[in-house]
């Protein structure tokens, strides 16, 4: 691998990017610095995330500026296998998807209220690396949102999903992800997961009341029903950290959706689960039931805004079944990693009551009630 160095970026490389950001063709950078925001852990596709910021001269004014650099790499650079490094563009983690979706113009036709950071430049570098230069979005992060603000984002997601169910055909491009849950089921260790481990029992109930565990065993049944639902374009990574709320001059609030690397085709309702899960994690003072109701009703309103007419129960099944599988499989992945790291202390563990509000179990409970009636 030819590793890319952020230190190789100089003022001449930054200038055309910054001029787009400040919308001034004669803007001259006076000084700048760079801070790393993330990357190097988690999904190997993101090599690094950086904020470049400084001041510059526009005619007789000294103005601040900032831009974001997202460095994307093939997972093969770190020896990863079957993580989207190959030629399968429909793979859930295909590493070039985010540059491709920006280049396609697909993100320029989002419904009103939903937007993305502006993309200033996409540069391919040797060694399977792509530089994605993006707008540094100013606004409030979801950690500080109210329930109403979460509900508004749910409505915007409903509008996005609904527009491809009412008036637009699904994009005929090969690089949108497909069959993500099926791929996760095939690639994650749920079949050998130690459900009776003491640490696992702190999160999940035992088999007799663990509907999520039963759902995994019967996953083909649920996947078949999810495939029969109307399919739409989804962001596919809607945990609240991927959203910023921006105030517009007209007083409206715009939802800026970050990180489109997992975007793809999924059933109606699929985009709602992670948002509800994250809202329940962040809004400690609000009951889980109130959050679920508010965001689901707002998502339905968004579908209706886009002219989409789908039975309530079908949307509810898409939401609950997909949420249980998506969040639950991800939780199994992280618990498996924790068990590997903590194996030396297993003898010290004592059984604790399982979490009474285990999200994926609650979602699976409802999906089981709906699977035979939709």
Molecular structure report:
- The chain has 374 residues and is α+β, with helices and mostly antiparallel strands.
- It has two domains: 6-135; 140-370, Aminoglycoside 3'-phosphotransferase, Chain: A, domain 2 (Alpha-Beta Complex), CATH 3.90.1200.
- It has ten helices and eleven strands.
- The chain has helices at 11-22, 97-104, 147-166, 180-187, 211-217, 219-228, 273-282, 288-305, 312-342, 359-370, and strands at 28-38, 46-58, 61-73, 114-115, 119-125, 129-135, 140-141, 231-234, 243-247, 253-257, 264-267.
- The strands form three sheets. A five-stranded antiparallel sheet has the order 1-2-3-6-5. Strands 4-10-9-7 form a four-stranded mixed sheet, with helices on one face. It has a two-stranded antiparallel sheet with strand order 8-11.
- A hairpin with a 3-residue loop joins strand 5 and strand 6 (129-135).
- Helix 3 packs parallel to helix 8 (288-305).
- It is globular and about 70 Å long.
- The mean pLDDT is 93.
């Amino acid at each position: 691998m030819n590793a890319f160095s952020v230190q190789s970026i100089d003022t001449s490389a930054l200038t055309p990017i910054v001029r787009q950001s400040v919308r001034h063709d004669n803007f001259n950078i006076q000084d700048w610095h760079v801070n790393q925001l993330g990357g190097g852990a988690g999904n190997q596709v993101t090599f690094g995330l950086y904020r470049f910021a400084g001041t510059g001269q526009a005619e007789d004014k000294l103005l601040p500026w900032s831009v974001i650099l997202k460095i994307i790499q093939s997972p093969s650079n770190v020896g990863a296998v079957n993580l989207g490094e190959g030629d399968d563009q429909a793979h859930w983690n295909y590493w070039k998807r985010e540059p491709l979706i920006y280049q396609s113009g697909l993100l320029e036709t989002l419904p009103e209220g939903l937007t993305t950071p502006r993309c200033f430049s996409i540069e391919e570098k040797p060694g399977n690396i792509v530089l994605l230069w993006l707008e540094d979005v100013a606004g409030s992060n979801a950690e500080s949102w109210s329930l109403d603000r979460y509900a508004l984002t749910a409505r915007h997601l409903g509008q996005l999903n609904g527009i491809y169910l009412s008036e637009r055909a699904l994009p005929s491009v090969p690089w949108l992800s497909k069959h993500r849950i099926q791929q996760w089921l095939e690639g994650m260790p749920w079949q050998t997961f130690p459900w009776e481990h003491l640490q696992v029992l702190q999160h999940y109930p035992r088999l007799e009341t663990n509907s999520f565990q039963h759902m995994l065993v019967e996953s083909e049944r649920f996947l078949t029903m999810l495939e029969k639902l109307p399919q739409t374009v989804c962001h596919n990574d809607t945990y609240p950290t991927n959203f910023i709320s921006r105030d517009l001059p007209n007083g409206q609030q715009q939802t800026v959706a970050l990180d489109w690397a997992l975007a793809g085709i999924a059933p109606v309702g699929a985009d709602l689960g992670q948002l509800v899960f994250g809202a329940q994690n962040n809004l400690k003072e609000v009951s889980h039931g109130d959050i679920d109701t508010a965001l689901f009703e707002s998502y339905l309103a968004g579908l209706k805004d886009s002219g989409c007419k789908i039975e309530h129960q079908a949307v509810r099944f898409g939401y609950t079944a997909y949420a249980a599988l998506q969040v639950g499989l991800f939780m199994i992945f992280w618990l498996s990693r924790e068990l590997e790291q903590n194996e030396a202390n297993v003898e010290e563990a004592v059984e604790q009551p399982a979490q009474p509000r285990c999200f994926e179990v609650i979602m699976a409970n409802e999906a089981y009630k709906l699977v035979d009636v939709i």
